[in-house]
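Appendix B, example 12.
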Amino acid sequence: MKAASRRPVVIIGAGPVGVTAALLLARHGVRSLVLERHRGIYHLPRAVVVDDEVRRILQSVGVHEEFAALARPALGLRLLDARRRLITEFPRSLHGHHGFPETSMFDQPALERLLRDALARRPECELQGGVEVVSVTQDTDGPNDPTGPVRVTFRRDGSDEEEHVWADAVLGCDGAGSLTRGSTGAVWEDLHFQESWRVIDVRTTRQVRSWEGAEQICCPNRPATFMRVGEDRYRWEFRLPEDENLDGPDGQERLRELVAPWVDLPSDASSSDDFEVIRQAQYTFRARIADRWRRGRVFLLGDAAHLTPPFVGQGLCAGLRDAHNLTWKLARVLQQGAHEGLLDTYERERKPHARHVIRVAVAVGWAMTGGQDRGAAFRRAVVGTVCRIPGVTAAVSRDLSPALTAGPLVRRRPRLTGRVLAGTFCPQPWVRHDGRRVRLDDVLGDSFAVLTAVPPTAQMTAVATALGAPTIHVDDLGDDGTLAAWLARGSSAAVLLRPDRVVMDTVPAGTGDFTDTAAWAPLLHTARHTADARPAP
């Protein structure tokens, strides 16, 4: 048996969530080892949509320009009846709050190649493929010790020999069948949605009757989803019985019937050389969430922590949000000796958000695809009526990323006037910096930041200094007025931004200072005087 090595962080799973987590940790100077059972990128497309918040995360790991070259902005979601008549439309802007199109279509293998290329350029990251993890165990001094090292045991392809690596933290990004989830003792909570769907990815040069967005066919007998993914790439999803085969002559005829509303195929679809089925796969769409996302220094991210039906396109998005939320906190604990309680805020913040998004997806699934009962038509009629109320479609779109609830890292004040900014994301306009036009996050860097519309007070400066944060006056950024208007709508003179660009605290206009920092300072700084404080590993 080989001697065990030790790494600050071991990440199990090299899908988009695991690799993004490694890249984010690298931005904070934390080394990681990524273990993946496959030797190469999984070649078949799975996720096909991300939102502007996730585009911003891709910016933070340095792949947004390359991603923009392969992504296709989408105009939104249309709900259609069985005859493809419009019920309602959820439009999406080409320039969202985060500075990117609110919806982008893409091919997941292409995104994974970008992320792995970026990983190869980071000396802090190491990827080992062809590795099967067989156990994850934590060495602790008792139930109250969350900081003991974690042992990851694995085997390489073609070998029965077990190897071990010790880690100060382990991130389980190993999908729905997560071994890591089992090691934490977590179990699934069923959120009551399970349907069998056929996903069909196609490349074709034929004329396809589509618009630049996603279509949801609201039909209890044959619900379907259609979207254009790329220049010649399309995806269809149909709710079909598991035993309905689309292979062979009979299956090809059935496929021709299914896609007929969008594209005309010859009677023998198999003879068409300009309509290539890249893959077809049967999936069971489920709604589940793990009852716990952490045990000691072992964490669950992505599909290991939550599963959502795809009806609002948030599956991959939720996993990348997990990585963005956790990594800066973990880096602060490992490198700066921040209090272990900082890591408790990961599940506290992300789990309600993930649950909310899953429930939205389930509601869309039941309301739009309706099931086979008599109430399906009634639900679709209600949806159509409600969505015609002014502002409802915009509210539904916003609600896919609701504000974080109040907590140690989201300091809410009693609302007097204006929008509550704490727990929401700072917008990202284009700004001027060193004579160049850049995005805001390129100026803010990877740490905290104070944005102010007034001259900074001594307390603002002290808070910024304690956190290693720049203090930036919005008038010096030369944007288009977005930031000043955003602060004014929130009746705020200044905001304290976290590394993930969430507003942590605000200075109400006319008051002058942030709230009492004693509520959150112990989490972010080395707790030298706290009885249960522990040194960084």
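Residues 341-369 form the longest helix (29 residues). The chain is about 30% helix and 25% strand.
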